[in-house]
Design a protein that fits this description.
The protein has a 5-stranded parallel beta sheet, sandwiched between helices. A two-stranded antiparallel sheet has the order 6-7. Helices cover 43% and strands 5% of the residues. It folds into 3 domains: 121 residues, Rossmann fold (3-Layer(aba) Sandwich), CATH 3.40.50; 189 residues, Serine Threonine Protein Phosphatase 5, Tetratricopeptide repeat (Alpha Horseshoe), CATH 1.25.40.80; 180 residues, Orthogonal Bundle (DNA Cyclobutane Dipyrimidine Photolyase, subunit A, domain 3). The chain contains 19 helices and 7 strands. It is mainly alpha-helical.
């Protein structure tokens, strides 16, 4: 376990303007924790100042579970403390301060009133809501370019020009060439761009072997102070903090990156889509929160992974699969987000209106896969991408849950959740709510997929192969119901042709039984009722 310096001693705003006066006030948000950002260009400690603020609305108006809130607040306090220790004039408003502002724009107004700076600047917020709020703010901060990312909006527009459809794979190839990543002259390393087909293995019946222990960081006094603050000020938030051990400083994030590259990256490729009971971490990187708060730069993450391959310590399929997530997918979803907002948030191509089941906030469900994935999410603030896409996301898709309700859940519960990356992944990939902007078809599957990629079904009362009857898996019931309900719409998608063709195997009696069972599940808040309509199943 790694340790950190203990004290948080950054002052709150003063009652009167400081001396010497503040020339330029730099306002840093919780997902902008990068001292190399444009906000610090030309920063003069003798004249300029840093201001950071916690605001209650960021945890309540946009609901945020305890692990996610702790991740943001602890990382922010450590960043501010380090800046103060380095000699930067720094002020910080904490959630437990008596004068804490309710919103971030209100906090900035307080800072301007207290510090009377000649000018205010900040890196452009990564969320549309905040960008609009600050762009129209009375204090008119200068919004600076976010240099964290490898693809600008202008770059993406050039990529998108003239294309009828946007697909990540072609964008990813362009990014590989532009940034000379995993390239040998003008060709992709290993002779192919994508090794995804080699990275979809399930575990043997004996389960995963050689899983490295996760890199954990014991909470220091600053983090413990954050945990106490959350328990006192936000006791009703979901989730738990007993196992909070995320990297919340740049130094710890670099340790986590080194540990992943050395211990987990060599094993990452083969089983990156596999799941196993009691194994939340497996061979995944656990770096997305540090990346999204900008404790890590994507360039150094990509470079570390590529060096491992070139040094012979990690196989190419594993390295390519990981780099595709950072250089390809992460940059792509951000570009889609900014290109499509604000209308993207309102998209609902499948007209899904079902409320989010209550068990998403508790994990109290008889379905083992959902119980496992949601349980670890609430406890750790983490689930890997297949648990998100093909368990919690898949069930919401098949059940027909309103995309905005699912979006709010994903944004709340994961420590790495910021809207620019979470919204396209949820609404577009998991729910097909954008009608094909992100994905070429809905990621619809029966319970057999989960059975093939995990051991969850071994400890579940439901049969993944059955669509009707007492033991039918709700995923399988709802899968066939999903195809039946959306057949006219999906028939226009050539990639759905084989799945829709399978509907011809269902006679009228079976279709009626599926409809009745699916209707009963939806009427019972997404959980199969104990008494099903048996008359249709006889």
């Amino acid at each position: 376990m790694a340790t950190r310096k203990p004290a948080f001693s950054v002052p709150a705003l003063p009652e009167r303007p400081p001396s010497p006066p503040v020339r330029r006030l730099v306002f840093v948000l919780g997902d902008q924790l990068d001292r190399r950002s444009a906000a610090f260009d030309g920063f003069d400690p003798a004249q300029d100042a840093l201001f950071m603020a916690e605001a209650i609305d960021e945890s309540t108006q946009a609901w945020s579970a305890k692990p996610r809130t702790a991740m943001f607040l602890s990382a922010m306090r450590h960043f501010a403390q380090q800046a103060a220790d380095d000699g930067l004039r720094t002020w910080y408003n904490r959630l437990d301060d008596s004068a804490c502002a309710t919103s971030l724009p209100a906090a900035l107004a307080q800072a301007v009133a207290a510090l009377a700076p000649q000018s205010v600047c900040m890196v452009t917020p990564g969320e549309y809501r905040l960008r609009e709020a600050f762009a129209g703010h009375a204090c008119a901060p200068s919004l600076l370019e976010d240099r964290h990312f490898l693809c600008s909006a202008e770059d993406f527009e050039r990529h998108a020009k003239g294309r009828k459809q946007l697909r990540m794979e072609f964008f990813y190839r362009e990014m590989r060439v532009r940034h000379s990543v995993l390239m040998e002259d003008d060709q992709p390393a290993g002779g192919q761009w994508n090794f995804d087909a080699e990275n979809r293995k399930s575990f043997p019946a004996t389960g995963p072997r050689g899983v490295p222990a996760p890199m954990l960081f014991e909470p220091d006094a600053i983090t413990r102070g954050v945990i106490d603050c959350i328990e006192q000020r936000l006791p009703a938030q979901p989730g738990a903090l007993a196992r909070f051990a995320w990297p919340v400083t740049r130094a710890d994030a670099l340790l986590a990156l080194a540990a992943f590259v050395e211990q987990r990256l060599p094993l990452f490729g083969d089983h990156q889509d596999a799941m196993w009971t009691g194994e939340p971490w497996l061979y995944h990187a656990h770096l997305s929160a540090a990346l999204n708060l900008k404790l890590l730069d994507p360039r150094e993450v990509i470079a570390a992974a590529e060096r491992a391959w070139r040094a012979g310590s990690a196989p190419l399929p594993a390295v390519e699969g990981f780099i595709r997530q950072v250089l390809g997918w992460r940059e792509y979803v951000r570009a889609i987000y900014w290109r499509a907002m604000p209308g993207y948030l309102e998209m609902n191509a499948l007209d899904a209106r079902q409320p989010l089941p209550a068990f998403y906030w508790t994990g109290d469900t008889p379905m083992a896969c959902l119980r496992e994935s949601i349980g670890q999410t609430l406890e750790l603030g983490y689930a890997h991408h297949i648990q998100r896409l093909m368990v919690t996301g898949l069930y919401a898709l098949l059940l027909g849950v309103d995309p905005k309700a699912v979006h709010r859940w994903y944004l709340a519960v994961y420590v790495d959740a910021v809207e620019w990356v979470e919204l396209p992944n949820t609404l577009g990939m998991a729910l097909y709510g954008d009608g094909g902007v992100m994905a070429s078809k809905p990621y619809a599957a029966t319970g057999r997929y989960i059975d093939r990629m995990s051991n969850y079904c071994k400890g579940c009362r439901f049969d993944p192969g059955a669509s009707t009857g007492e033991d039918a898996c709700p995923f399988t019931t709802l899968y066939w119901d999903f195809l039946l309900r959306h057949q006219p719409r999906l028939s226009k998608n050539t990639r759905m042709a084989l799945q829709l063709k399978n509907l011809t195997r269902l006679d009228a009696h079976t279709r009626a039984a599926i409809d009745a069972q699916a209707t009963a599940i939806r009427a019972n808040d997404g959980i199969p009722p104990d008494h099903r309509p048996k008359d249709l199943l006889q």
